[in-house]
Amino acid sequence: MADKRDVTVEVRVPLSVDDRALERPGIVRGWDSARARRYAQAVVAEIEANAGQFDDCRVKAIALDGGIASNAGAGVATIVRALRRTCEIEEDAPVTMRASIANVSGATMPFFRRARVSRFDFEMLSLNPVDFTVLNRVDNLNDLPIICDHFLHSYANDSLGFVFAYGHAAPKGSDGMLNVRRTALAAARSHASHVRLVRCAGAMAVSDEEAARQFDEMCSVLVDAGFSTYENGLFARPGKEDRFELMRARGADSLGFGAGAVTRLEGVESVNTNDFERYCARSADFAAITESVHSVEARPA
């Protein structure tokens, strides 16, 4: 039998209670547990409809993103369980999840553990109290140590990641450069093994020049603290680079599930619809949810 191809899996969960700082296209805003359950069921239906289609693939890394994936709650475990039934997944394949600390509790953590989430990328946006309350309208900054110490036990493992915003206006009376510097310094003092910097958008955004200065300031602090930058906007402690991102950067084949997901195999790329309602209603029907199919040039390994 021919060797299997190594692939990544991206599951997109385009849910966010409040996305005004990033303004991501296709995001469905607001908290609705019934909607989250319906979406998780739709993703499972898409995965199961593809049973047998990827028997020649071996999954090396899984990313749950596209929004705040932890908003799916117990559905995270249901989705990953369906993946494990449908695809061959390496035993050590990391599972990373874009998350909110507001979603972590005694009720949800068992499901995240069942999904074998290996790193929680908390979309805090800031760790500086001055601009945290402007950028993050969902989480309570005071809860972060409790989540890290008592749920993740991040002092003993590499399960903590952060997503921070840069390129945002400073609250009145504060210094924007000092604000982002303090966030980077707080991350450097934490047990985080991975940091992602994302540019602010919409009404909160500043000029390209100011955004670049903020990015460079945060980058300098993180690198001085021992992080390395290995892709644009991605920083990791030594040896803790994200396998999913490394494989994506070198053009590895990838399976995508969810609204807006992209599957790339053998030079052909198929893109799912970003229409949330259409996806939920027809997710098991490839023809109904496929927005486009086209050839792509192979990237150098």
Task: Describe this structure as you would to a colleague.
With 301 residues, this protein is of the alpha/beta class. The chain has one domain: pyruvate-formate lyase- activating enzyme (Alpha-Beta Horseshoe). Helix content is 33%, strand content 25%. Strands 1, 4, 5, 6, 7, 8, 9, 10, 11 and 12 form a ten-stranded mixed beta sheet that branches. Strands 13-14-15 form a three-stranded antiparallel beta sheet. Strands 2-3 form a two-stranded parallel ribbon. Helix 1 runs parallel beside helix 2, helix 1 crosses helix 9 and helix 6 packs parallel to helix 7. The mean pLDDT is 96.
Task: Put the structure in a nutshell.
With 301 residues, this protein is of the alpha/beta class. The chain has helices at residues 33-49, 75-86, 109-114, 129-135, 144-152, 176-189, 208-224, 243-249, 276-282, 286-289; strands spanning 5-12, 15-16, 28-29, 57-65, 88-89, 95-99, 119-125, 160-166, 194-199, 228-231, 234-236, 253-257, 262-265, 268-272, 290-295. It contains 10 helices and 15 strands.
Helix content: 25-40%
How many alpha or pi helices?
A: 10
Q: Assign the CATH class.
A: Alpha Beta
Indicate the radius of gyration in whole angstroms.
19 Å
Number of strands: 15
Number of domains: 1
Structural class: alpha/beta
Strand content: 15-25%
Largest sheet: 10 strands, mixed
Order of helices and strands: EEEHEHEEHEHHEHEHEEHEEEHHE
Architecture (CATH level 2) name: Alpha-Beta Horseshoe
Mean pLDDT across all amino acids: 96
How far is it from the N-terminal to the C-terminal residue, by CA? 24 Å
